[in-house]
Amino acid sequence: MRVTVGLSGGVDSADAAGLLKEQGYEVIGVHFSFSKQGSGCCGNAGYERAKRVAANLKIPFYVVNLHLEFEKMVIDNFCAEYARGRTPNPCIRCNQFIKFDFLRERAKVVEANFIATGHYARIVRDATGRFHLYRGIDPRKDQSYFLYTLNQEQLATLLLPLGDLRKVYVRQKARDWGLPNAEQTESQEVCFIPDNDYVQFLRSRHPELFRSGPVYDTAGRRLGTHSGIVNFTIGQRKGLGLALGERRYVVKIVPEENAIYLGRENEVYHTRVWAEAVHLIEPVSEQRLRVWAKVRYQSDGGQALVEFLSKERVFVQFETPQWAPTPGQAIVFYDGDCVLGGGIIERSET
Question: In which broad location class does this protein mainly occur, judging by the first location in its UniProt entry (predicted)?
Fold first, then answer.
């Protein structure tokens, strides 16, 4: 059986390729280039590491240039969301519109049966032939949050060989195989932004977004002036540019007013969330559904009641307050370890 594996240059995707080869698959490595210069999703260094991994594993290696598609579907959206006073998640956007669809296209070209990535999540097929997405067994690495946009057609041909493994084992396998990225550190950066300086990235493309405006407290009193709403996100405490004598956090961004609102820590916690662009992996017939929901990747989440306002919009009432639900970020719903679906946060309230 033939499988195309997305090789980013990181240790996880490298291990996915190695494990599948070890299991008897005919593995083909594919690296996506997201720039005119040909550097990949993790820059030129990522491309070089992916190339060396493929050579080490003795598998074919192809580079696919997607810079036009990536610019249109991910970067343009990234900039537009910040202009709206929101904080986007480009990794989810890339998964939804770039990574899995183009891996499947490449699989068709090379007549592969499956595609695979190095995500820490699990896919289970039930007796009826339906596919379900589950958390990875390593709670510190579970990446199911980023995959809630997958559909049945994608799940049917997707292999996630790291879902049943812990990171420590994955790292050791890379050492055993002598992979060049075995000791590579984890990256928390947005892959297409140099030095993770998203402010400079936005300034170079859209300097008009950096307009000064008012900073208020939640009572409407003016506290000072900011240098552009794109410098801020909900829950931010550092870099506010004001000496207030006490801790204040960004609690609201209002692009129509070009204004930032600051509040105390307790004002960042919200229990009510509205979300749009909802996608469900699991079929839901009830208008209201009790779930476990997460408003950000690193949060524990909490019990919540989801009410469907329409096919693509929901209202979510949490039992306990959640830290900084942020417009533009994803809210993802679970039933135990099973991913039900998710959406993009529109707004939230206490």
Answer: cytoplasm
**Which of the following CATH numbers is that of domain 201-267: 1.10.3080.10, 3.40.1710.10, 3.10.280.10, 2.30.30.280?**
2.30.30.280
- Do residues 40 and 9 touch, judged by C-beta distance below 8 A? yes
Residue 272's nearest CA partner among 233, 312, 309, 311 is: 309
Which pLDDT does position 37 carry in this prediction? 57
Q: What residues are paired with 339 via a beta bridge?
A: 334
pLDDT of residue 35: 78
Q: Is-catalytic flag, 94?
A: yes
User: For 35-54, what is the mean pLDDT?
Assistant: 75
What stretches of the chain show up as alpha helix (H) in DSSP? 11-22, 43-57, 67-70, 76-83, 90-94, 100-109, 152-156, 167-177, 198-205
* 91 pLDDT higher than 50: yes
- Check residue 46 and give its pLDDT: 87
Mean pLDDT score, 162-181: 95
Structure tokens at 216: 């208020």
Find out whether 73 and 67 touch, Cβ atoms under 8 Å. Answer: no
The single residue of 41, 42, 94, 338 carrying the catalytic annotation is: 94
CATH number among 3.30.530.20, 3.30.310.50, 3.40.50.620, 3.30.420.10, domain 2-182: 3.40.50.620
Q: Which residues are annotated as a binding site for ATP?
A: 6-13, 32, 118
Note the pTM of the prediction, 2 decimals: 0.95
Q: Name the band, by pLDDT with cuts 50, 70 and 90, for residue 43.
A: low
Report the helix count and the strand count for the chain, using DSSP H and E. 9, 17
Is 41 part of the annotated catalytic residue set?
Answer: no
Q: Are strands 269-280 and 338-349 parallel, antiparallel or unpaired?
A: antiparallel
Q: Residue 216: count other Cβ atoms within 10 Å of its Cβ.
A: 19
